Target: 1105_t:CDS:1
Amino acid sequence: MVHVYNDILSIVVVVLIIYISHFYYKYFTRKNPLPGPIPLPLFGNLFLFRHDIGELPGLLQKKYGDIFETYIGSRKFVWLCREDLIQKMTTTSTRSNFHNLTTPDNEGLKEVGLLNTALVYNLNYKTWEFYRRFYARSILKSSFNIKAADCIQEAFREMEDYWEQLGEGTILEFPRWIKRFFTDTTFLMAASKPTYSLASYYNSLFTDKKVHIPANSLKESDTFIRAIDAFVTSLLYFLLLPKYLRELPGLRGYTNNLKKRVEWLKNNVRGIIKERREEIEKTPEDHELAHDLLTMFITINTSRDITEKIADSLHDRPMTDEEICGNFMELLSGGIDTSSNSICYIIYYLSHYPKVKEKFIEEIDRVVGKDISHKITNEDIGKLEYCEAVINECSRIFSILPSVGKRNAKPDEIGGMTFPADTQFFTYFQGIHKHKSLWTDPEEFNPERFMGKNGAENKKHLYTFGIGLRKCPGRNLAMLELKLTLALLYRKYDIELVDMNSPIKYHTAIVRTCDELKVRIKKRNI
Ligand code: HEM
Model:
């Protein structure tokens, strides 16, 4: 018996040695070798990802230069950290050679049901163009900005009421509040429906006066937030991690949990769509329908269409429930984490740069006025130039999405090297945003670089909202949300960090997520 075991063990060892030798033979004789950490068989450089994935490429850039490679499992990823290396990706035509990172047969995305469902992982340009057209004629329109500004101010008033109840000077865990705030505003804009997420967070604190929330909503709103988080994580997790790693004993539970939460979100959104369809059917033809994104999705190219002439000969059909569901989920996930985390980092930087903060508040007082009952208009927001420069500078120095993935359809040349079709690239925006060839004193927080005559030129090198064809369709709305929220906060309040010595605490899962930012909020003496 012992002999049999020894024989099996010898075979296993021989197979392993052959496998590892073959792996390294292939690795060291690969075409177009780039510098980068040496991968392990089966795992690649996965263990390096114990570092934050926003920071890791920066560390590797210092060691290996502006173009290097890493491996996840056996998949190779080429990192591009200098602006000239991503130039070919700036083209906005669907005939561009550079597309989203996914492939038409990505098994992970198929498994979680996120392939070709909406915009992000859609490789079918006929439907992708239809949805992009929808964004262009809805969210990017100024008429939608009016609705957005109303929703933001409504949710802000609610948040202030809770702060008032908690008492001035109470320490607030700001990332929790602002995420709830953007969840409520985004949902109000998208579906004119309350999610009670601010209310449920307030009720979860030790407060005397609880807010009345309809039964079930409290639990639903927390599950909802967790489901959106799972959705965002899944976008990267299922795209990149091969099945054999997702199914490892330590990861299987996590994988299943993500799938369960994404499924919960889908079912919930399907329910919301069904409810709204019924409401629309019951509304007489001569009555106005709710002016929100959900109604736009449902009525597009129907007799009740409330969108602005989206139809053309190529896009003249209504959307199916599954299309609406996919787009609605992306809309929610695209807008909440990005905006709420941006606000946290802006508060952090403003607190550490008092002169910038002074100028920033001076502009808000000048443009919006000190009358806090004044409803901030879109015209006011348009005039907040320095505020926009602060947002831009913050996203340069601490990029909220440090990198995005791209893939070439045909062989292409980058940096003097020819890459075969289907090479997987990561454009490392954070590296570009701090590259000495582009920026003077890149480590210095200086919003002035986005003001005046140099400002417009510098903005061309800022990739906050991505690049080329897939550039963020929510960018105008995002800018409006950030400027308005900052104006509402700073026109009325002094925001102090509780610990000025603490570095920013965050982790990156696509978006750099602020884990902790304790603040004290007091009314300003105005
Ligand atoms: C501060 C806020 C935001 C930032 C920093 C941001 C950033 C980005 C970036 C970097 C991309 C990837 C672009 C690329 O692949 O090159 C993207 C795509 C996208 N964003 Fe945003 N975004 C923000 C807000 C929003 C909002 C408010 C929405 C929705 C209303 C939204 C919806 C989307 C969608 C649907 C895509 C996928 C586009 C496609 O693949 O065609 N984002 N965003």
